[in-house]
Specification:
Distance between the termini: 94 Å
Shape: elongated
Number of domains: 4
CATH topology of the largest domain: Pyruvate-ferredoxin Oxidoreductase, domain 3
Helix content: 40-55%
Number of helices: 25
CATH architecture of the largest domain: 3-Layer(aba) Sandwich
Strand content: 5-15%
Length: about 550
C-alpha cells in the first residue's frame, strides 16, 4: 500500500483486504463478459477492482478461469491512495468460487482453491461431460452426488442449482445467471441496482425499449438472484428463531457495515452472533470494545497467515469465546434473562398451557456475598468478601440470601425488571474490572502465540472453552486457563533471558496446550489436568486452602 499522512485512511487500508473471486466457465459461456460486468459494476459503485484471466482450451476439454479482486472500501474513502492487487489466485485464500459446471467446481477444489472455513462456493449442478467420460465404453459418468459431497465438505457456504436450466428458461446465457448468483450471495458491497445498471448497458431512461438480449439477461439475473438470496434469508431466519428460543436472547441483528468491511467473510457468522450478544448484555460501547479486541487477534493472525489459508480459525474461535466471557453471568444478567417475555412464552409451550390456563412460575435465587460484592466498588467488595471468608474460617457456611420470586406476578416481574435495569452499575463493580483484566491476559496470550506460530495461537484461543458455568465452576475454569497459558503457552515460568536456550518449540507447546485443555475438560477435580501439566514439564496447580466446617452432633439417647 502507498504511504499516507492520514491516520484514519491508514487504519482503513490496514484493516481491509481485497475480496477475491475465481470465476470458472467453459468455452463459449461468456466468462469474459461476466468478468467485465463485475469490473464495470465495481467502478460504477465507486470501488477499485482488477481482473485477470487464465485461458484454457476449447469447450469441455478445458476451462477458462477469471480471477477478480475488489477492494471493499469505496475509493472516496481512500483519498489519493489505491490498493495493490494480485494477478493470480492463491490456493486456500479465495473468498468465493463461482462455476458453471459441477465437475469443474470440484476440480478447482481439488487444486486447493477452496478453504472450508472461508470460501463461498456457487456452482451449477449441470454436467458437461469430459472427453474421458465420453470415451468410456460403458457408463463413464462421474457420480454427481460424490461431487456434491466434495463441495459441501470444502466450503463455508454453498449454493448449487441448475444454471443452464435458468439460462434456457430466461432465453439468455449462463454468464447472466452467474452474475445474479454472485449478487444474491452478498459477496460484494454493491447494491442490486448497480448490477442491473450495467446489465442494462447503463441506459435506464426508457426501460420499455430495452434490447431483447438485455431483457433476457435481466430475467436470468433475477431468477439466479432469488435462487441464492432466498435460501440465505430463510437460513438466517431459522437460525435467529432457534437462537431466540434456545437462549432467551433476541435474534442477532445484521452485522454493522463497518465490521463487515473490517473482518473477513469467514468470521462474519461468529462475529455477528458475538457482537449481538455483547451489545444485548451491556451497551454499544461494550460491543465496540469486543470488536476492538477481536481486531487485535485478527491483526496477529494476518501476520502469521497473510493468505488466510487457515480460514481465520483463530479469529473465529476468539470471536466465539470472547463474547461468552465478556457476557459473564451475574445477578443482573440472570434477572434480565428470567424477565424476558420470550422466556414466559417458552415456559407455557413446555407445559403445554392453553390460552385460558393460568401458569404460575416461581424462581428461586440464592445470591451469596460474592454476587453482591461483584456490583460494589473494589474497596467495599473486598470488605464484604473478607467478612464472608472470616465466617467460613470460623466454620460457618458461606453467607447467602435465599429468595423466592413469583415471576408470574406484577410484583415479581417488577423486581426482576428493576434488577435487570442495574446494568449501568455493572461497570462500576469489582467483578467487571477483574473479568476485564483476566480477558486481557488471555487475549495477550492468544496474540503472542499466534504471532509466534499459528497453531499455538489457535490452541490458546480454543482454551476459551474452559470458561463456563458460574460460581466455583467459573472460577476454576479461569484458574485452569491462566495456569495453562502461563506455564505451557507463553513459558511465563522461564526467565526471558533463558527462553531462547530453554524454550520449548512452538509446535510442542501447541500440543501441550491442546492436551492440557482436553484434560481440564475431562474431570472437574482436575486430577487429569495436573498429571498432564507435570508430563509436559509444567507445575501442577497450587493447592487451595479449604476451610474446615465443624458440625454439631445431635446427642444420642442414654444407655
Amino acid at each position: 500500500m502507498k504511504n499516507s499522512t492520514s491516520g484514519k485512511n491508514d487504519n482503513t487500508m490496514e484493516q481491509n483486504r481485497p475480496t477475491t473471486l475465481l470465476v470458472c466457465a467453459l468455452g463459449g459461456e461468456g466468462g469474459g463478459v461476466l468478468t467485465e460486468w463485475l469490473v464495470d459494476i465495481a467502478r460504477h459503485a465507486g470501488y477499485a477492482a482488477q481482473s485477470t484471466s487464465i485461458p484454457g482450451v476449447a469447450q469441455r476439454t478445458g476451462a477458462t478461469t477469471y480471477y477478480l479482486e475488489v477492494f471493499p472500501v469505496p475509493l472516496a474513502q481512500l483519498g489519493a491512495r489505491r490498493p495493490v492487487f494480485s494477478l493470480s489466485p492463491v490456493p486456500g485464500a479465495l473468498d468465493a468460487i463461482v462455476s458453471s459446471e459441477l465437475l469443474e467446481t470440484t476440480r478447482q477444489i481439488g487444486n486447493g482453491m477452496s478453504a472450508p472455513l472461508r470460501t463461498l462456493v456457487i456452482s451449477s449442478s449441470a454436467r458437461i461431460f469430459t472427453t474421458a467420460e465420453r470415451m468410456e465404453p460403458g457408463d463413464g459418468r462421474t457420480d454427481s452426488q460424490r461431487l456434491l459431497d466434495v463441495v459441501k465438505a470444502f466450503s463455508r457456504e454453498h449454493h448449487v442449482f441448475d444454471m443452464n436450466a435458468i439460462a434456457r428458461d430466461s432465453g439468455t446465457v449462463v454468464s447472466a445467471v452467474m452474475l445474479g448468483a454472485i449478487a444474491g450471495s452478498g459477496l460484494f458491497p454493491f447494491p442490486r441496482e448497480a448490477y442491473e445498471h450495467v446489465v442494462r448497458g447503463g441506459d435506464t431512461r426508457a426501460p420499455e425499449k430495452l434490447s431483447k438480449m438485455a431483457a433476457a439477461s435481466l430475467r436470468g439475473f433475477a431468477a439466479a438472484f432469488d435462487a441464492v438470496s432466498a435460501p440465505r434469508a430463510q437460513a438466517a431466519f431459522v437460525s435467529s428463531v432457534l437462537a431466540s428460543e434456545g437462549h432467551d436472547a433476541p435474534p442477532a441483528s445484521a452485522l454493522p457495515a463497518e465490521l463487515a468491511r473490517r473482518f473477513p467473510p469467514a468470521v462474519h457468522d461468529m462475529l455477528t452472533l458475538g457482537h449481538a450478544r455483547v451489545l444485548d448484555y451491556q451497551d454499544a460501547g461494550y460491543a465496540a470494545l469486543y470488536a476492538q479486541r477481536l481486531g487485535r487477534v485478527l491483526d496477529a493472525e494476518r501476520t502469521a497467515d497473510p493468505a488466510g489459508a487457515q480460514g481465520f480459525a483463530v479469529t473465529r474461535e476468539a470471536a466465539r469465546w470472547l463474547a461468552l466471557w465478556m457476557a459473564f453471568d451475574d445477578i443482573v444478567r440472570v434477572a434480565a434473562l428470567k424477565g424476558r417475555a420470550s422466556r414466559a412464552q417458552r415456559v407455557r409451550q413446555e407445559v403445554r398451557a392453553g390460552d385460558e390456563d393460568i401458569v404460575k412460575v416461581y424462581d428461586h435465587f440464592k445470591p451469596g456475598a460474592a454476587e453482591f460484592a461483584a456490583l460494589l466498588p473494589p474497596s467495599l467488595a473486598r470488605r464484604v468478601t473478607a467478612w464472608d471468608r472470616g465466617r467460613q474460617a470460623r466454620g460457618r457456611a458461606p453467607w447467602a440470601l435465599p429468595l423466592k420470586v413469583g415471576s408470574h406476578s406484577v410484583a415479581g416481574m417488577a423486581s426482576l425488571r428493576l434488577l435487570a435495569s442495574l446494568r449501568w452499575l455493572r461497570r462500576r463493580g469489582s467483578r467487571f474490572a477483574e473479568e476485564q483484566a483476566l480477558i486481557e491476559r488471555w487475549l495477550a496470550a492468544v496474540e503472542a502465540g499466534t504471532r509466534e506460530a499459528w497453531a499455538l495461537g489457535h490452541e490458546v484461543a480454543l482454551c476459551g472453552r474452559l470458561i463456563k458455568g458460574y460460581g466455583s465452576t467459573n472460577e476454576r475454569g479461569k484458574e485452569n486457563l491462566l495456569h495453562v497459558t502461563d506455564h505451557l503457552a507463553t513459558q511465563a515460568g522461564v526467565p526471558p533471558a533463558e527462553r531462547a536456550q530453554a524454550g520449548v518449540p512452538p509446535a510442542e507447546r501447541a500440543q501441550a496446550v491442546a492436551a492440557a485443555r482436553t484434560a481440564a475438560l475431562a474431570d472437574d477435580a482436575g486430577r487429569a489436568l495436573d498429571a498432564t501439566l507435570l508430563a509436559h514439564g509444567a507445575p501442577a496447580r497450587p493447592v487451595k486452602a479449604q476451610p474446615i466446617r465443624w458440625m454439631k452432633r445431635k446427642p444420642t439417647g442414654g444407655a
